[in-house]
Each structure stands twice: as structure tokens, then as C-alpha cells.
């Protein structure tokens, strides 16, 4: 009896222990559980033509460009994505949207158009969530860049008049009127950003405020100054990373030193980012604590990277298999939406899958 009771107790004890061990297992301890990975995905069925600008407004992703359908619905050059579907913003524009910004709680669009929402709006217009309105009499030629500086909306581009007054390629809107920034810039402005309490303009110009400034210059509210000797060819985009101003474009030298299409300005001198990229850089942002560069290239820092790559301060790395799908693919714009990196441009695939002109890089 004692032996039988002992064997019974021992048997039940083993069963209980095994039961506790099994009950204690969770999915997190199961090596078979799929792990989240970074990957590319489309945003619905995308657009029918290029996406040239991106921003976030009213908790929605806003895309502007050449397209006139988004997600299969009519959306003339501008559309909003709510995380599920695309929708137009009124009747949109008559021509390309090149730049987007937020000013006085309104969405500002700049481009080639002359009407927005069916009303006259020369190259620039504001969306209040319900309708489009012009900003004064607008510009006489295209707006390519928008930013906010000193509580004013700043526009740059090909124009030489704004609100009917002379404004060489750059002007400020205070909510009522347009004014020039000194004597302006002598040629096209592609990008604007605030850095070190100054407004920085990049483009294909050679002078700003009457002084030599090769493709990049700073406005302090009163005067224009160059950033060293600038770049040897066009600057297309600017961002801030590691407290430095990062420039991307077509250039191969910055500040007189070799810098393949991307370089950093620390406030006093230019420096390359490794060996740079082999091709043009037309879009820059910071995502996941890394600098992200997009454009038309296939190598970054000596590693294969199809039109998009990241820089961690030391080395370059690709983002998956990149973005491709056309004879001449390129990325034109970035923004961050819902903790995801959004890329827009001229492409049809992202990560090897269909993604027409817009895609997201996210953890899945």
C-alpha cells in the first residue's frame, strides 16, 4: 500500500509539474512565432503618375504631383490618404503640385497650376479642410519649394514676381501680403529649410542678395550669406541630421571637397558622408534615427542600394531591395506618417512588389 501510494503521488507530481511547465509557455517564448520585420508595402493602388511632394495635414497623408487619379478615383494632382483609402481635395489643381507645407493651420500647395478648386490661384493656394483659396495674386511662374520661417510662409521657385511685386525666386507671405527677401536669388530655388535660426535656400543659383552663393545660401532676416563655397551643381533637397545640415542633389563637390551627391554642413565647413552615392539625391529625411536618402542611384557607400539608402553616421545601408520598376526610377519626396516612412516619386515597385508612385516602409 505504501509503495502504491508513493508511486501514485510521484506520478501525480510529475503530471502537475509537466502541466505547470506547459501552461507557462507563451507565444513570446515560442521560437516558431513569426518575428516583425521591416518591409515595403503599397498604399492602396497608388497613383497613375508621379508623386512629387508629401506632408501630413489633419491626420492624413497628403500627396501632390502630376497624377490625376489616386486609388482609382479622380484626384487632380493632390490627394489624401487616411490609412485605408485615397480621397481628392475638392476638385484639385489644373497642373502639377511641386511643394506642400502647413501654415496658419492650412495646407499650402505650390506648383505650376493657375486654378485650385475651380478658382484662380496662380501657382500657390491654401486648403482649409473644405475649400481652396488663393494667396493674393500668387506668382508669375512655378513654385517649387515651401517652408515656414520667422512666422511667415516662404516660397521659392522659378518666379520673379509675387503678389505683383518683384521677388526674385523667393518671397514671404505674412497671411496678407507677399514681400521679397532682399534682392532675392538669381536663379531657381528647389528647397527651403530653417537651420541654425536661419532660412536656408538650395537650388541651381550662383548668387543670393547680390553676393556669390553657389547653389546654397542663408537668410538671417536681413541679409543673404553663402555657406562656404557651396556646391558645384544643383542642390535638390535639405534636411537636418545629427545637428548638421544635410544637402543632396546632383553635385560632386561641396566646399571644394569631393562629396558625391550628398554632404553635411556643420556651421563652418562641408564634409562628405562616406563615399556618398553613385547617382543623384532628390529626397532626404530622418527616420528611425537614421538619415534616409532617396533619388536615382544604385550604390551608396560602395554597397548596392536601389534608389534609397540610410546613413547611421558611419556607414550606408539599403532599405530592403529598394524602389524600382521603370526605365528611370527615382524618389522625389519623403514624409513620416503613422510611424512609417512614406516615399513618393517615379517608380512602380517597392521591395519587388507593385507600388505605383508611392510606398511605405514599415515594421510588419
Could you describe the 3D structure shown?
With 364 residues, this protein is mainly β. The protein has a single domain, classed as Methylamine Dehydrogenase, Chain H (7 Propeller), CATH 2.130.10.10. The chain is built from one helix and 42 strands. Strands 32, 33, 34, 35 and 36 form a five-stranded antiparallel beta sheet that branches. The protein has a four-stranded antiparallel beta sheet with strand order 1-42-39-38, with no helix packed on it. A hairpin with a 2-residue loop joins strand 4 (69-70) and strand 5. Mean pLDDT is 92; it is low at 1-30.
Quick recap:
The chain is mostly beta strands. The protein is built from one helix and 42 strands.
| Radius of gyration computed on alpha carbons | 26 Å
- The backbone outline, from C-alpha atoms, is globular
Q: What assembly state would you assign to the polypeptide chains in this entry?
A: single chain
> How many domains make up the 3D coordinates?
1
Number of strands: 42
CATH topology: Methylamine Dehydrogenase, Chain H
The structural class is mainly beta
At the first level of CATH, the class is Mainly Beta
Span of the ends, CA to CA:
60 Å
Helical stretch count? 1
CATH architecture: 7 Propeller
What is the helical fraction, as a range of percent?
Answer: under 10%
Which properties best describe this structure?
five-stranded antiparallel beta sheet, mainly beta, 6% helix, 50% strand, four-stranded antiparallel beta sheet, Methylamine Dehydrogenase, Chain H, 364 residues, 1 helix, globular, single chain
